[in-house]
Amino acid sequence: PVGRPAAMYAGLQELGVANGEDLKETLTNCTEPLKAIEQFQTENGVLLPSLQSALPFLDLHGTPRLEFHQSVFDELREKLLERVSAIALEGKVEERYKKLEDLLEKSFSLVKMPSIQPVVMCVMKHLPKVPEKKLKLVMADKDLYKACAVEVKRQIWQDNQALFGDEVSPLLKQYILEKENILFSNDISVLHNFFSPSPKARRQGEVVQKLTQMIGKNVKLYDMVLQFLRTLFLRTRNVHYCTLRAELLMSLHDLEISEICTVDPCHKFTWCLDACIREKFVDNKRARELQGFLDGVKKGQEQVLGDLSMILCDPFAINTLALSTIRHLQDLVGQDTLPRESPDLLLLLRMLSLGQGAWDMIDSQVFKEPKMEAELITKFLPMLMSFVVDDHTFNVDQKLPSEEKGPIPYPSTIPEAFTKFLQENRIACEIGLYYILHITKQRNKNAFLRLLPALVETFSDLAFSDIFLHLLTGNLTLLGDEFAVEEFCTGLFDGFFLTACSRKENVHRHVLRLLLHLHHKVAPAKLESLQKALEPTKQSGEAVKELHNQLTEKLELRKPSPAEVAETPSMELPLPTVPTPASR
Predict the structure, then answer these.
(1) I want to staple 20 with a disulfide (CB 3.0 to 4.6 A). Which of 1, 217, 272, 539 is the partner?
(2) Where is the composition biased (Basic and acidic residues) (predicted)?
(3) Under a CB-based contact definition with an 8 Å cutoff, are residues 216 and 154 in contact?
(4) What is the mean pLDDT of residues 7-29?
């Protein structure tokens, strides 16, 4: 080991064990090197009397002493690692940790020695509280910090928020990127969309699993992650941070980490809501449970509303609440009941309102439920119900025998109040958008074209948000055959999508995604004009340029080749008349 780097035997001198440097010094200052080597081997070899006679036997087999010592060392290290893990589980708590602390004290000076490092790290891993001094030494050394177990890192992180933030930050960025990649995926389908994976499946994702492991049972670290998520949500308004807030809590719930679940006041609410998200519906029993949690927020504990609102702001929660609202409205039409007479519907609106108000509540730090506008319940929802009635009336009318006056046309106008609600009321806008998704999924072209103009201007441009456009493009695949109709394409593209393409790059991307999927259904002349209208500008990002290139390539493949075009006239030559057998 004379030529080995110093790290190989770092710390041995402090323990009074000879190392390569000592051997080098001995050989430099001696007159008989071979004798000096023999003496060094005797003093520092394995001190077993029975071994001395066996070593020459290994020499006869050509086994180098280094190989022998290395194998003995590896075997001893494995035994020691097993023993350390065993000590961590046996005897009284104070005694076992006292043994491990003593072992750490004796071995820590060798922590930089690669061959011994695993043992030192193993001892630290099993100590619930590593001495502060040693933690600081580990933290100060990049390589040691990297090598230590997550159990040790947790102890470092809990008093170093900035360092923990550096570890968590790339994971949060990765999480947001993964969500955006799903929303912009080129696979457009009504069956497999952003909301298809079950909550349990989503929690198996890499980021959630890594964060869960980093937190362990440490409440302080859990609180830090929640603080990061709140801060980022405030800074960016990105609702995917709300999803992660809920997924992280439920991931710890899956592992039965009671140390954290019992202290998070949102745990039972989130657990109940998670079951609703799994079913994509809020049933009566769970609705009562959720209401109980909201009504149970005591005076002086209103701050929990900030966390509950963030849980409800999760797009998966909003999706479930909005789908349930549409279903309730349809049921009410059949029951001849007004929205204000349905407690279940009012609760869904209350939760939607709390979720949609999350950002304002956390930003203002005013923790009280947003006031529900009466007109939402007395005017807007009955208006939506009247649209459902219009559809029923039209469908029944189509089945009746037509009289001389001819069939009744589908209503083409929309009440001005509907457009106004979509522009000025966030909850009305959310429910209105989900109603439009609902009629698209039902392949109700008439209702879709009737309501589409109301989407050009909506509250906070919600109709041009990624989640809505992702769902809309998926549902539009069910109306594929309509893309051959000029009126439909003009209403959809010219009347809606193209009004925002130039100012909103995400809309540009979603339209190109849709055309990549349905270009073969669109009339050639319309397709050509759309291809021109959707050409990237100098300001367009790489994603738009790439999608437009893909579309251009697909359209090129559809065009007949010049050779085919040249041959076409020959097909139109008059065919020679062949007499039929009957005319002979």
Answers:
(1) 1
(2) 552-561
(3) yes
(4) 66
